[in-house]
Amino acid sequence: MNSEDQNTPQNAKSVNAELAALMEQARKAASHSYSPYSQFKVGAALRLTNGEIVTGTNVENASYGLTICAERSALVRAVAEFGPTIRVAAVAVANLNEAPSPPCGACRQVLAEFILPDAPVVFPMAEGARVMPFHEVLPLAFEMK
Fold first, then answer.
1. Is residue 121 part of a domain?
2. Is 71 one of the catalytic residues?
3. What is the pLDDT, as a whole number, of residue 143?
4. 31, part of any domain
5. What pLDDT digit, counting tens, does each position of 43-81 carry?
6. DSSP readout, 68-88?
7. What is the mean pLDDT of residues 32-45?
């Protein structure tokens, strides 16, 4: 093993490949977006700790407050399919409009109920895709103890 290999996390390449695959699932979900008002087509893909991938997309409503974001859509689907004990190991968000799309505040807080603190979250920004551990995406989550 050379010194470069010693300084590289053991699974850095596989994590990057896994996040790229997760992002592709998010893009596919975004293609199903119902966004007739904003034309803002967003998809999310969650990798659960059990290895399952669950996707969601934004669904708008004429009463804008009733719109649901892709991240919450995916999370609701994950709970519906696998139960309330699910945990999220990684999140990818894609936007077919090529616009910056970090998870909104509501999505961050809802994800906080189910996500591992160090779970990577990848999302588009103006300078390209950004990856952050969840605890940096929402450093001061509201918690009930």
1. yes
2. yes
3. 84
4. yes
5. 999 999 999 999 999 999 999 999 999 999 999 999 999
6. B-HHHHHHHHHHHHH-TT--E
7. 97
Q: State the catalytic residue, choosing from 71, 81, 98, 113.
A: 71
Q: What gap in Å lies between CA 135 and CA 139, rounded to an integer? A: 5
Spell 19-38 as b/e; 16+ CB within 10 A means b.
beebbebbbebbeebebeee
Residue type, 142: F
141 part of a folded domain: no
| pLDDT one-digit tens code per residue, 78-118 | 999 999 999 999 999 999 998 999 999 999 999 999 999 99
Residues 6+ apart with CB under 8 A from 5: none
Confidence of residue 24 (pLDDT cuts 50, 70, 90): very high
Q: How many domains is the chain partitioned into structurally?
A: 1
CATH code where residue 56 lies: 3.40.140.10
32 is in which domain, residue-wise?
A: 18-136
